[in-house]
Predict the structure.
Amino acid sequence: MDIKPENCKSREVYKLLTGIVVPRPIAFVSSKDKNGVHNLAPFSFYTAITSSPPIIMFAIGERGGTKKDTLNNIESQREFVINVVTEEIAAPMNDSSANFKSEVDEFKEVGLTGVPARKVDCLRVKESPIQLECELENVIPIGDHSHMVLGRVVHFHIEDEYYSGNFKINVEKLKPLARVSGPNYAKLNDFFSLEKSFNSKKIID
Ligand SMILES: Cc1cc2nc3c(=O)[nH]c(=O)nc-3n(C[C@H](O)[C@H](O)[C@H](O)COP(=O)(O)O)c2cc1C
């Protein structure tokens, strides 16, 4: 099968990319608008891009030619929280992707508990075991109808039982949820390790 993206509709290319770039982590983003209304939404075009300083990115597409609430909130308040999604909060996370009106408090709507963050003025999800408090670094328009949000992590919240010591996370316990394509998700709970065993003559020390 050969497919040229220039011959496809944007929805068709979206389906290809979201089926091929898998599994994707989910940034469950909490933000607040200028009137104090709390917002929650998941974004799976998401990754960490550098650790010095700690910067993450996620991409927000437009909806019918207008910006989504998360982008409006982040542009006006310049801060947000990324809540790690586990299997236990899959359903409310998925519910929060509905197109709620801007004035709706989505914590209440999907049944999750908001607790204050330490360094940014928005709520984090209590039911999520790890949260990243972020300040906006930059918003970069990408392509025809998307924006890349770069956030600097200014605080890590990690529940003690998910911390293995020496800055390591207990991923087996965390059981993070991943997005696949369409309505499909994946459970990450089958891990294995590989040791490095290359021919040392060909390796630069
Ligand atoms: C698991 C999941 C991942 C999603 N990833 C993205 C994404 O990467 N970019 C995006 O624009 N929308 C994504 N969406 C859709 C948004 O969550 C949805 O448009 C939401 O209503 C936006 O909320 P807001 O208007 O409150 O910002 C995703 C939805 C789900 C369920």
